[in-house]
Design a protein that fits this description.
Elements: H1 3-13, E1 17-20, H2 26-38, E2 42-46, H3 49-56, E3 74-76, H4 84-95, H5 102-111, H6 113-122, E4 128-129, H7 137-148, E5 160-164, E6 175-179, H8 189-207
Parallel strand pairs: 1-2, 1-4, 2-3
Antiparallel strand pairs: 5-6
Length: about 220
């Protein structure tokens, strides 16, 4: 069984609820159809149900037969959600020290699906959120950091990619975690150490195998 299939099997065995906030991008709808068809996560689509289903009609012919899978999704529109009052109060509690009041919090949740999705995660109504198809990395991170926050023992926010290389004798059957490829542009030695520690924890959490860490230098000049 390949890495992706293994991850899917683990996800099915411990199914989680995932927020997909970028419903104006057809790739998000296609991803939701695939996930629901294969049954490895429960999906919440943030937006108006009728508009999302209309958008889904633009799927490729290969995925149109699977469109009924979207009936198993949960649709939440921030503007008329019964959760809006609770999420507004949560956001005010989290951001009051920055001067945010209830009017500002409500407007942010209604007008920005990233913040609405992150608030659903923070409130325990969802387990995670996937975004970045139509938003910049900075926008996704801003919503996540301001609402969800970081792990208690985290000293630095970093990112990683999982590289799954077929027929490779290195890594864990050709699977690697590469960090930090897109966030910390010019880390200090101490920051590199924190990234290495976080990366090892991430690897072990996903792969269920002891991590071996290598420090690599790189250049954008060839």
């Amino acid at each position: 069984m390949g890495f992706i299939d293994t991850i899917k099997a683990q996800a099915r065995a411990n199914k989680k609820k995932i927020i997909l906030p970028e419903v104006t991008d057809l790739r998000t709808i296609e991803a939701a159809v695939k996930i629901l068809s294969e049954g490895f996560a429960d999906i919440v689509l943030v937006g108006q149900k009728d508009e999302i289903l209309t958008q889904a009609k633009g799927l490729s012919q290969a995925h149109l037969p699977l469109i009924e899978a979207l009936n198993n999704a949960t649709f939440l529109n921030a503007k008329d959600s019964a959760l809006l009052d609770d999420l507004t109060a949560l956001l005010v509690k989290l951001r009051a020290h920055k001067g945010m009041d209830s009017t500002q919090a409500r407007e942010l949740l209604v007008n920005d699906n990233l913040y609405f999705g992150a608030a659903l995660v923070k409130s325990g109504r969802a387990d995670g959120m996937v975004a970045g198809a139509i938003h910049a990395t900075a926008d996704v991170l801003r919503a996540a950091l301001q609402i969800v926050g970081t792990a208690a023992d985290s000293k630095l926010v970093s990112s990683f990619f999982i590289m799954d290389i077929p027929h490779c004798d290195y890594g864990l059957n050709g699977t690697f975690v590469f960090s930090d490829c897109g966030l910390c542009q010019n880390p200090t030695a101490e920051e590199l150490a924190h990234i290495a520690i976080s990366s090892a924890k991430s690897f072990e959490s996903v792969m269920h195998s002891e991590a071996m860490v290598a420090m690599l230098s790189h250049s954008t000049y060839g």
